[in-house]
Each structure stands twice: as C-alpha cells, then as structure tokens.
Amino acid sequence: MAFEFTPERLAQFHELLTHYPEEHARAAMLPTLHLAQEQNGYLSQDVQAYVAGLLGVSEAQVLDVVTFYPMFFDAPVGKHIVRVCKTLSCDLCGCREIIEHIKERLEVDFDETTEDGSVTLLSSECLAACDQAPVMMINDDLHGRLTLERVDELMDALE
Amino acid sequence: MGKPKERRILYENIDAPDMHTLDVYRRHGGYASLEKLFDLNAEQLLDIVRDSGLRGRGGAGVSAGFKWNLMGQGEPKYLIANADESEPGTFSNRYILQHKPHMLIEGMIIAAWSLGVHKAYVYVRGEFTLGKKRLDAAIQEAYEAGILGESVAGHDFALDIYTHAGAGAYICGEETGLIESLEGKRGQPRVKPPFFPAAIGVFMQPTMVHNVETLSNLPYIINNGTEWYQSLGAVYKDTPRGVDPMNTGTKLYCVSGHVEKPGVYEVEMGLTVRELVELAGGVRGGNEVKAVIPGGSSAPVLTPYELDVPVDFTCLQMAKTMLGSGGIIVMDETTCTVRALENLMDFYAHESCGQCTPCRVGTPWTRDIVARIEAGKGRPGDVDHLIEVANNVANIDTFTWNTICVFGIAVSWPAVSFARKFRPEFEAHIEQGKCVTLPVSEAVAPPEENYAWPQELPEVERKPTWDY
C-alpha cells in the first residue's frame, strides 16, 4: 500500500505549512521528511514520492535533499539508532575504546544493523557536548561521560 | 588586579531548577527588557547595539551593529537564529536551548523590533532533540502569555517565531547554507559577494542571521545600557587595518579535551589561553600542554609558546588564528598531533558539501596524506605536499579561498597550522615509519620557524580587572 500520513501527522503537516510563505511550501521539506521518517522509520521511494506530492515538488528534488543530510535514511534501519561521537574532544577522552567495545558487543561495524534488526550503529561528527566527552546518542537521548560499564548498562536496557 | 574569574551574565542562573519555563525565567528578571524596548525606535536601537561593540559569536566576529546597518529595505524581512551548533569543540548554545530558551526568544524580540521583522526562525541542529523540545515549549508559553503573536507584550507589533530542525549537516551552520536548507534544499552555501543575506537572504528577502549567543546578549544590553556593556571585556588601540579592536562583553568559552574540569566558562574577554586553561582546572593530572585549539576546530592551533595570547577576537586574529565559536580544545603531552589532525581532517572530509571541486577533492586528499603519515606510511616530502594541497583549497598565507564559502579556509587552517607548528612530530612519523609521540619540547617547531611568529599583540586600552 502506498504511504500516507496518519490523520494526526497530516494535521501536523498542514500546521507546518503555515510557518512559511505560501509560495514557498518547499521550505517545509526538512520538517516534513522528519515527520515522515518518524512514521515510517526510513524514507522509501514511496514516502519520498508522497512528500513530493504534498509539497508540489519533483521526486528528484526530494531525493536531492534526502541524500544530502545524514539524519535521513533511504534504507531500512534498526529499531534503535545509536550514534557515537568520534570527533576530536571525544577522541582525546577515549572514544576509540568505547567504539571498539560497542562494535564487538553488537557484532556490527558503523552503518550496519544488528542481525535481529534491533540496533543500527552510526558514527557521528561532534555532537556539541564535548564537556561530557565521550558521548553518544541513543535515539533522541544524549549520554555522556561514557565508560565501558556505562555503555554496557545502556546497551542492556535496549534489548 | 584579581585573577580572571567567571562572570555569569548569559549563563546566570542557568542551573536554576525549571529555568527553561516562563515563570522561573520571569522570576529571575526575564523579559524585563520589553518594558524599555518599545520606547526605543530602530535608529536608537541601532546606535545602542553598534556602540555596545557587540560582535557576532558564531565564528566570524562581525560587529552586530555593522550587520544591522546593512539590512535591506524590502518587505517582508526575516530574522534567523542560528542554533545549528556543529563546530567541533563548541557546546554553549546547546545549554542555552536546554536551560534558558526564553533568553533567546527575548533577544529575538529585540532584534525583530529593531529591524522591522515579523517572522523569525530558529534553525536548530537536528541532533538537539531536548533543546528543540524545550524551545518549542518556551515559544508556546510565550504565545500563551501574549509575549509573541499578534501583539507582542501588548504593543502594536506582531512577531511569530518558528523552529526548524536541521538534519545533521555541518555546512548548514554557514549562514547561506542554512538559508538554502531552510528553503528546503541541500545546504550548499551561496556565492557572496555581491549579495549578503542582509540584502538578499531567505525567500530572496532581507534576512538577519545571528548566532544564539549573539542574540542572547541583547536583553542584557537593553537592560543595563551601552556603557555597562562597554565596561566589560577588553578594548585595544592602534590595531592594524582590518583588525577590529572591540572585545566587549563576556564570552561563553567552551573548554574541552585534556582539562580537569571541562565545561562552559563565561568570562569577560581579555584573559589569556593559559588563564583559561587554569580556570578549567588546569591540564589533567598536572600534565604539560602540547597544543590548544582556541576557537573551534577550524581555528589554527596554538603551541605552548603561544599560551599568553588573550583569548579574544582581536588578539587571536593578530596571532593568525581566531576566536571563532569559542570552542577551546586542550591537548596534553600524551597527544599525537598527527592523529589529532587526522581526526579533524576526517571530520572535514565527511562534512564537505561537495559543491566546489577544490574542497570536495582537496579535503579527502589532505585527510589521506595525514592518515598515511599517521599509519607510518608517509613518504619524504609529504609534509610539504600536505601543506600545498591544503593551501590549494584555501591559502592561509594570502587568506584567499578557491571555494564559495569559508569551509575551505576551515580545512586549510588546521591542516597547515598543525603541519607547520608540529613539523618535527610529523617528520618523525615519516622517518620512523610509525606513530611516535614526541615530548612537547621536541614536537613543536622552534618559535622562529612558526609562521605566526613573532607575535605582535596590540596595545591594551582597557582590560578587565576581575576585582569582584
């Protein structure tokens, strides 16, 4: 079945449109894609076509945006998204050990999903929380001052 | 004269419970500036902001008054708060959004009234989920309390503020990349000059883009006056052409890396790198400093010979680096500077938006050379090769870039400064065919070989006394 927004999300979409000048509906692209990804998990071709129709732009223009931004997924991902920061301040505070540990524990590399489809592991550029380095995000939540024990606790809670 | 210490203005009471709510923010004096604001007209406000000396806190350090003066005449006009905080080592906006979002709204109301704006956006970094949630709730509260909407605080002035979430691209922190992204496109920066956003910005209309911290300064300037703001920070005299001597106000310094107490330190500008490191508890375990990045990862790195440079716009510019976003990354004696640079070049190679060939190709190329040196596979001449490739993305000596935006210079600044200032450590990697971390005294090039030496710092007109 072709993708469409739930009635609640469709209402949210129409509210979003009011944020931008009428002739610039395309400006609602990023928020609309966030909304679609929230519903569908990732932005399949189906979803992209639907968003293109809503905003009155071509599918190519949607694809153009989807492929530019790292937070948009054009292929299925796991139930949980784990983003581990690997930029300088985290590196100085030992994120490499943390990353190795997570990879071993999940038996995946970056940009891969665990076999059971539970976790997709991503590397992240600076998450702007360097005072808490090393840091990672699990779904919407930031976790700082990571130690191997803390990582294990957080991972245990996921399963 | 006292020792440099924190002076919390923007960050005052930031830890107070529920400071992100309207009630608590008001109880701590929030929105007081609105009582004065509407008695002032655009011209008076431009004078106040210009005379205060307030400079942009996002990176370029442009005088806010100068920018306001350039605002075009077309209608409608827009205001954008840049909350796409992504410069490695910077994290002060995050806590403003999470803990004091009403301060940003108050600052935006001041800027909007001054500039005749009725629609404003906050471009929030996609990963700032809690910050966006708190800001959205604060905006909602402000509407309900009549602080936003048809009639701002009961005055004949309408203002709507909307948040707009990014999706993880560093380049959207560049103001024209941000504008493209806000318009629903790839965040690829626009060619400028001739048209800066103040003339032609979002939806082809005059647009003022300010960093969150810059806007957050406005309520305090309106409340306490220009003279009070001018009395904070450092002012220099006889600066060369093109070097602004004003460093008024406090700065939210984000200190991270190998210090005992990493965090955000709000201090009047004028303290030195060494003093700031001390303020952050000193280097971990009493170790020696090897390198300090003074203004986010794009700023040229400083060596232990350069720790007495004041961490402000003027002095860092004269020391051939920059205050940038105020992200200070401290590296101690255990750090391998080649590995540190490889980490940064990895970041830039990943974040290059791909629009301009010198950057799209040159950045990964620079990264590859550093990676090969770090892996012990460097060839003789690689350090010069690295400098040449990076300088062809943007030349740090002539300060010209072969790219549309300043991302190019943000790549070559760290690349060339690390390679030149820590050349002995880079060469040792190549000679020994492996990663070697030299002691600080051997890793740093002699100061006379440093391209930013001798350091000619300007004469001080006024510096903070820290007598409080």
Structure in words:
The complex is a heterodimer of chains A (159) and B (468). Chain A has two domains: 60 residues, Arc Repressor Mutant, subunit A (Orthogonal Bundle), CATH 1.10.10; 79 residues, 3-Layer(aba) Sandwich (Glutaredoxin). The two termini of chain A are 31 Å apart. Chain A is α+β, with helices and mostly antiparallel strands and 159 residues long. Chain A is built from seven helices and five strands; from the N terminus they run H-H-H-H-E-H-H-E-E-E-E-H. With 468 residues, chain B is an alpha/beta fold. Chain B folds into three domains: 210 residues, Rossmann fold (3-Layer(aba) Sandwich); 91 residues, Ubiquitin-like (UB roll), CATH 3.10.20.600; 100 residues, NADH-ubiquinone oxidoreductase 51kDa subunit, iron-sulphur binding domain (de novo design (two linked rop proteins)). Chain B has 17 helices and 13 strands. In chain B, the strands form four sheets. A four-stranded parallel beta sheet of chain B has the order 3-2-1-4, sandwiched between helices. In chain B, strand 2, helix 7 and strand 3 form a beta-alpha-beta unit. Chain B is globular and about 70 Å long. Chain B starts with 21 loop residues before the first helix and ends in a 6-residue tail after the last strand. The model of chain B has no long low-confidence stretch (mean pLDDT 97). The chains are: A alpha+beta (159), B alpha/beta (468).
